[in-house]
Design goal:
Organism: Eubacterium plexicaudatum ASF492
Mean pLDDT: 85
GO molecular function: catalytic activity; iron-sulfur cluster binding; metal ion binding
Strand content: 15-25%
Structural class: alpha/beta
CATH superfamily of the largest domain: Aldolase class I
Keywords: Iron, Iron-sulfur, Metal-binding, S-adenosyl-L-methionine
Bound molecules: S-adenosylmethionine, iron/sulfur cluster
Low-confidence stretches: none
Order of helices and strands: HEHEEEHEHHEHEHEHHEHEEEHEEHHEEE
Largest sheet: 11 strands, mixed
InterPro entries: Aldolase_TIM (IPR013785), Radical_SAM_PqqE_MftC-like (IPR050377), rSAM (IPR007197), rSAM_sf (IPR058240)
Strand order of the largest sheet: 14-13-5-6-7-8-9-10-17-16-15
CATH architecture of the largest domain: Alpha-Beta Barrel
Distance between the termini: 44 Å
Protein name: Radical SAM core domain-containing protein
Shape: globular
Number of helices: 13
CATH topology of the largest domain: TIM Barrel
């Protein structure tokens, strides 16, 4: 007998469709949240109960595995319930570094039309425009905001005013920085302005390597290396970030041990992505990853670029967008619904981008070791202090 009372509301429409197709199925927490020995997290399905089972023929069959197509159907059905509570507002492009790997300022970027097409690299968002975007996000229910630059956030002239404005509207703030310009006074101000989390991108603990892949200014290196402990002193959670490149690939372990010793909140070791003709190069094909539609955990990490165009993940930031996707004119709800609907249609343009996206992350695996939770996926490994 089919245990209909156990079927989560959100899955009923899908199961009705499956029944109509006379499809055989058996769903239990064991197979719903596991695929190919990996744990799955469905966007929009976070509240699905982890108990009970339901089957098309009423018989429990522990051996029944959901197929790739089944998982895709479920993931896409649940996606429509997804509503982000975090958002990234990119307000500036300027940087005091030119890291060779960087997709915005690094090798080769000056030859492209990327900035020209987006109103020029010198463009900075006015205070009023930033406030307008924040109002729109508050109304939608965003309570955690990343105030970001595609360069160095402290170079954004209205950083303090805009941070204050967002915090006074009840938002927690976070950002990513190269760390080169922070003093103790600025850290204190950031803590007062509601910054709860800051990532410091370092890529090495050696000045020699730093000079090659980040900046050769020693005072920048020293300030960046001091920043994590200063942030912790003022109660801001810190993540130190390492992007694996040719020049630092043998320094991962040293980096990890150094920052574990300093007891930072988290350490991330990420793969470098490569941009080619202004798109993130297709690493999926090279790495032989299996692409499961609707399951990319990066989907829904909303980003509004300085020109107002809004993207539903960092994998799409290089995509040319139309005027219609501007946050202040159409609002968060439309941007989100548009993204989700597009993701769920058979001929989706968005899905085509996903298939060649280097940032595709379908699942993460976790383990606990020596007081750290280690979360590993195809794009990065993150050590979280317990
Ligand atoms: C564009 S930066 C902006 C913030 C700041 N300038 C910094 O370096 O942290 C945002 C993040 O992207 C990372 N990043 C830049 N280029 C990358 C690449 N080719 N592959 C992977 N990560 C990259 C940086 O290390 C940084 O953590
Ligand atoms: S500091 Fe950040 S934004 Fe600036 S060049 Fe380096 S990676 Fe790019
Ligand atoms: S695969 Fe890439 S483009 Fe598609 S949702 Fe993930 S990050 Fe975005």
């Amino acid at each position: 007998m089919m245990r209909k009372e156990n079927i989560p509301e959100k899955l009923k429409p899908l199961l009705k469709r499956w029944e109509k197709q006379e499809k055989e199925f058996y769903i239990s927490p064991d197979n719903l949240f596991t695929y190919n020995h990996h744990n799955l997290k469905y966007k929009g399905g976070e509240d699905i109960p982890l108990a009970g089972w339901f089957a098309s023929n009423g018989k429990a069959d522990d051996k029944y595995k959901l197929s790739k197509e089944d998982v895709e159907d479920i993931a896409q059905e649940l996606l429509k319930y997804y509503k982000p509570t975090k958002w990234t507002l990119i307000l500036d492009w300027h940087c005091n570094y030119q890291c060779p790997m960087c997709c915005y300022h690094g090798d080769g970027m000056s030859d492209t039309d990327y900035y020209k097409d987006r109103g020029g690299q010198k463009k900075v968002i006015s205070k009023d425009k930033a406030y307008e975007r924040i109002d729109c996000l508050v109304e939608y229910g965003i309570n955690s905001l990343s105030i970001m630059s595609m360069g160095e956030i402290l170079l954004y002239p209205y950083w303090k005013e805009v941070s204050d404005y967002a915090h006074n509207k009840g938002m927690d703030l976070w950002t990513i920085t190269n760390g080169s310009l922070w003093t103790e006074d600025i850290v204190k101000e950031a803590a007062n302005m509601g910054y709860t989390d800051i990532r410091v991108s370092l890529d090495t603990i050696s000045y020699e390597t730093y000079a090659k892949i980040r900046s050769n200014k020693k005072e920048y290196f020293e300030r960046a290396m001091r920043l994590p402990e200063l942030l912790m002193k003022y109660g801001i959670k810190v993540n130190v970030h390492f992007v694996e490149q040719k020049e630092n690939k043998d320094e991962k372990q040293e980096f990890l041990e150094y920052w574990k010793d300093k007891k930072v909140d988290s350490i991330s070791i990420a793969k470098q992505f490569y941009c080619e003709n202004e798109t993130v190069k297709d690493m999926y094909a090279e790495m032989g990853k299996e692409y499961i539609e609707g399951l990319c955990t990066a989907f829904g990490n909303m980003q509004t670029l300085p020109d107002g165009n809004t993207h539903c993940c960092c994998g799409r930031m290089f995509e040319a967008t139309s005027e219609e996707r501007k946050l202040e004119s159409i609002g968060c709800q439309n941007v989100m619904e548009d993204a989700i609907n597009n993701m769920r249609t058979a001929e989706s343009e968005m899905r085509k981008i996903c298939y060649r996206c280097g940032m595709y992350v379908p699942y993460s695996d976790e383990k606990i070791m020596d007081g750290w939770k280690i979360i590993k996926n195809s794009e990065r490994e993150t050590w979280m202090k317990l």
